[in-house]
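Researcher: Here's a chain I'd like modeled. Treat it as a single chain, no partners, no ligands.
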Amino acid sequence: MLQESTAERLIQHARARGADFAEIYVERWKKRNLRLLDLEVQEATSGIETGAGVRLFFGTQVVYAYTNDLSEANLLEVTDTLARLKGEAGQVDARGAGGLDFRGSAPAGLHGPQLPPDERDKRWRIERLAEADAAARVGPAIKKVQLYLIEWDQEIQVASSEGVWNTDRRVRTRYVVTAIAENEESMQTGFAGPGLSVGLELFDLEPPAVHGRAAGEQALTLLRAKPAPAGPMPVVIGNAFGGVIFHEALGHLLETTAVARKTSVLTDKLGEKIASEAVTYVDDGTLPHGWGSSEYDDEGAPTERTVLIEKGVLKSYMVDRWGSLMTGYRPTGSGRRQDYTFAPTSRMRNTFIETGDTPVEKLFENIEFGLYAKKMGGGQVRPGSGEYNFAVQEGYVIRNGRVEEPVKGAMLVGKGPESIQRIVAVAADRKNAPGMCGSLSGAVPVEVGQPHLLISEIVVGGEG
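Model: Modeled as a single isolated chain. Structure tokens:
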């Protein structure tokens, strides 16, 4: 990691080469992966990555380079190379004179581990994962169980010509259980994957037996499921990972990555009613131990709770430094990147629909025929418009207000800005779930979430 004096010299050199703004991002990242198949170790790896990225602004034009050589001489050379890329903009400028007054603070520690990774050996990890394996085998049809443990311990520094000097430590742990069930007709999988910004205490906060059983039961349910019905119909979407639809088909439209380029259909809509009054949509980087939380973003700005939509009205976008420069909107601590090999862009953190006041059972009461999408899977979204199609991982027919037989192969097809207007009722049982989101600045950990909610009509694709 860099000394403050080294960062100051590098930034002053960048300003002397004509940059309007200079930023240095440094990270050290310890990673450990463990993968088991039927409790046999298939993979056990660990490693440390270090590197730095230099970003220079010349007006609204940005250049970025990265290196894993953290010597001052090399970082000066990288800075010179970036300045030369800008031609006339890179000529020597007197603004390089004068000192910097770095300001910053140590992280408050909301997201640090209580049980650091190095305090337990591989055998202990396997024993805890074995609890999930045993619980997943809920019947003879469960043929295989795969387990995957991910541990990250990342330290970052950010220094900039605006006086920012902040450090952050992000410790994240996640385990994934995949249960595979098989009969004479088909093979199905069940899935569970809790993750938080904690250390190995995750195993106590999210008991492996609970998630193992959930994965096994889901796999067995899908074995007896019938083909899903098709056509437009009311849909109740489950809580937790159900929020993935609005993350993908709505959240990305609210990032200044799209808004500043006017490629989002929600550009220039601040203050307008864009959703049902039942919807308040939030992106919160401050949730204690949230999978997508941190004290500071990857531009060194403090994270915050940003209300994006309040009772249907668009209140804010997610804004990074470049997005603020292009639009004039206030930065929201949303600049994120996968690692030092990526420049930051505006990204979601922990994004969810807030709780409502409708009892869950009342969501189903007046539905003559519809779909209960209890758990969502992956899907595809068209950037700019928010058109989506998402697989329903676990679904059930709703008939005369009752949840009945399980179905498989259902797809929800729609458009994010339209679907959010059709949310007619929201329950009070919000949960969040972890995932990885890919965009221009790589794959970053995020949470998605919502309570159970009722959408008056979505097109369901199915074979039934």
